[in-house]
Amino acid sequence: MEIPEDERSDIDDRGRDDTGEDPRSDVAPELLFANPLARPCPRRDRSFVAVLGHLCTIAVGSLRQRYGAGVCTRILWNDNPIAKTVSRCMDWSVSDEPELWFVPRGIERGGAGDSEAHTWRSLYSSVVTSMWGMGTVDGLNEKGLGAHALYLDPEDVSFPEPDGRPSVPNALWVQYLLDNYATVADAVADIDSIRITSPTFRGIELGIHIALEDATGDSAIIEPLDGTLVVHHGPEYTVMANSPTLDKQLENLARYRPFGGELPPPGDITSSDRFVRSSYFLHYLPEPENLEEAVAGVFQLIANVSVPYGAPYSTGDVYPTWWRSGADLTNRVYYFGSTRSPNIFWIVLDDLADGSEVRRIDPRQLTLVGDQTENLQPGVLPY
């Protein structure tokens, strides 16, 4: 379903104005991912709608040579006795046009665009969020495995060279993991069986790293560095942000209390500060009394490191949080909330797991709230 006209701003998050035209259509693709808000907005224009209008239509500011346009955070709460829960946010210069899908078992897939492309049939059903219709960026499968792709600066990323192994493009990496593995340990044990490739999107390189977690509380961070996949595996890896790489994030974390240093938690919106702040507040999160608090806890934490519309980085670039997702890994429930809405809704995977058809819902509908499992409609997954 589309958002009703009376609930849209003049420029919606698909970038179209009220004439139905895309104001960005005559802009070079790479400019769409430059800073759309580097130009300060006059105070009188700093309304929610005005900021979104600038976000989607103004292609000005410092153009980066690489795809420096995505910042996100992932937080795993795996040491409480009620449920293993996780949350992440999606921060980007423009809307990633998310769609939420139920993907059944038995779907045939192939890593197109490569002579060594891997083909597989999905073993497990999943609920996932897609990005620009090109791949899965976030999701949860029927076994309680969660997977998330977050931005990592392409200058830090180096994918393996062709070596005869079957290949999977990075846009399908999350879906591949959800389709094929029940636990983090299974995925990590099989990590070298495929080669991840990095095709360009609109001529621009996408750098990503992956966070995995499962219903036991196990966790892994996977980063493509120096031509290999570097894996940090263990329940202690509860936070992931963006660049720098995880080893450097952990080194920086040790400068802060209570992680070995004396510095108080920082308050900026940079990747390093978000990593420290997430770790700090997760450390002090009190034990939940019920399932609702176990889910609310991770949403409270991810809200703390979300970026408001219009808030600039030191470079002047603006990458606001467009949406936040969460998952109850223990009970296999996937949560989603758009930052253009005060509501959270969820999908109960157990109620869909045996389904045989792809189903979808537009998570940008402003009226979605509560259990929406029965409101998913038949759809055609574009990848």
Automatic annotation (TrEMBL):
Residues 1-29 are annotated as: Disordered. InterPro entries: CBAH/NAAA_C, Ntn_hydrolases_N, Peptidase_C59. Residues 11-27 have a biased composition (Basic and acidic residues). Signal peptide: none annotated. Keywords: Hydrolase. Residues 72-351 form the Choloylglycine hydrolase/NAAA C-terminal domain. One of its GO terms (molecular function) is hydrolase activity. Residues 1-10 have a biased composition (Acidic residues). Belongs to the peptidase C59 family. This is Linear amide C-N hydrolase. It comes from Microbacterium hatanonis.
